[in-house]
Prior knowledge:
- Helices cover 36% and strands 21% of the residues.
- By secondary structure, it is of the alpha/beta class.
- The protein folds into 2 domains: 3-189 and 200-280, Rossmann fold, CATH 3.40.50; 290-418 and 431-549, Rossmann fold, CATH 3.40.50.880.
- The strands form 5 sheets. It has a 9-stranded mixed sheet with strand order 13-12-14-15-23-22-21-18-19, sandwiched between helices. The chain has a 7-stranded parallel sheet with strand order 5-2-6-1-7-10-11, with helices on both faces. It has a 3-stranded mixed sheet with strand order 16-17-20, covered by helices on one side.
- A hairpin with a 4-residue loop joins strand 8 and strand 9.
- Helix 1 runs parallel beside helix 3 and helix 12 crosses helix 19 (520-536).
- The protein is globular.
- Glutamine (GLN) binds next to helix 15 and strand 19.
Amino acid sequence: MPKYIFITGGVVSSLGKGIASASIGRILEAKGLKVTLQKFDPYINVDSGTMNPYQHGEVYVTEDGAETDLDLGHYERFTNIVAGRVNNTTAGQIYHEVIAKERRGDFLGATIQVVPHITDAIKERIREATRGRRVDIVLSEIGGTVGDIESLPFLEAVRQFRHEVGRENSLFIHLTLVPFIRAAGELKTKPTQHSVGTLREIGIQPDILICRTEKKLTKALKDKIALFCNVDASAVIEARDVPTIYQVPLMFKEQKLDEVICRYLRIEYKAGSLYHWQKQVVQKVLSPKTSVKIAVVGKYIELQDAYKSIYEALRHGGIANDAEVVIKRVNAEKLLKKTAGYHLKGVFGILVPGGFGMRGIEGKVSAIQFARENKVPFLGICLGMQCATIEFARNVLQWKAANSTEFNKKTPYPVISLLEEQEGIENLGGTMRLGAYPCHVKKETLAYRAYRSEEVMERHRHRYEFNNKYREIFQKNGLRISGISPGGKLVEIIEIEDHPWFVACQFHPEFKSKPDKAHPLFREFIKSALDYQEKSKPPAGSTSVGSEISNKEAEKPVLAIERPT
Ligand code: GLN
């Protein structure tokens, strides 16, 4: 029988519950335990597919095509799990399911209530996470902050769950904040006490507290928290801000969080090691040999979370090449054809990510033109590939009005369009190509050089496709199609022949990149950026054009501003 760990959060949101959960998964996997992670989101949306990235951050896509919360990205990056639909449940899904049953008459006329019907459906989702496979530990993260009205049914469900499976089979971990009050010069434990008090009111006594803090928690402070919150002093874990999120598992292990979990859950203690993680990930992030600046040209640039997996995958590409990747976020709406050179000065690689809608398209096209004409390494993802196709049509084929039918239905050159069978389907949600599909990679291409394999599986989330009508003319004019769907029907990867590294793909490679195993396209993109940087270096003695890059004050690397929250 699996053991269950429930992770809740208190005091404020954005404490990094997802990263904490993923890190706990990592330290338990290091012991040879088989873990799975799931996220419960208390909002009413059925999934995050329709949610605005401004409010919710990126939509993370799983192998089986679920559009999920971005925390699943952390789970997949930190552990070996392959997440899917079962790993993310929203209140909307639960209500949808219960109401559908009620309409079908499955409840035989009973009055349908939050307790027991909604809570039963939630408990069923917890059990589903292990159905049909061997799992030693299920980690369930409850979204939201304790005290919110909307997370109550989830908390009640996990309270009942513990009652049913028993104490030795379940554990509550609560993540809180211990703020530093500058005027008093002190760390304060009261918010933690209050949030544990709120949990207790609903019948949950946490076993372990993970305390986010800017300053060290002294032994006296840990003892105080332990006493007032009724937990063991060894179960008060400090989670201090660290320079890279990938250090969090090491920080937990140093404080023996894995031992405490094993003790509570009566799991025979096996030491486990994070040596590889420390050497191959953390050390490489903390002491890179070199640094390279990459521009990401998108429309949700101000937001830390909207391109989360892209930023992480770029960082992984850096790790694989022993380099720090400094990301310059360029707002596509502000970039004009004549200002491209200004915005993209000093960058050695340009990435255009995915997106929906017209806003920022012209800026993206201009950035791509700049990359193509100046031979700057370029990686286009999904909408990025579509914009690269539009750019090629407009500026190489001279079809000035070329466009995607997503942005202009009447364009004379619909180089990106819906497939014929998609036309006329009203329900937009139903036409989206979602999840992992095979892609055939042609030999002797940049893509093949990266993958070193002719068959790959990549995740998709899009509606529009490269218009096959134009394949031939594009190819005759120097655009190489290096990846296609197995039947040859869909264009998956394009490249530019007369360019050192210009690759654009219809899928999202960022979802399959890991810190210790960078996605091949990201690894090669960063490598080509480093080569380009090397070539651009002026001869010794002259003034350096690369000086902007080493000037870390001028632009903080993403690593330094990203805390594990
Ligand atoms: N909007 C484009 C489409 O639907 C691209 C989607 C994306 O970049 N994820 O095809």
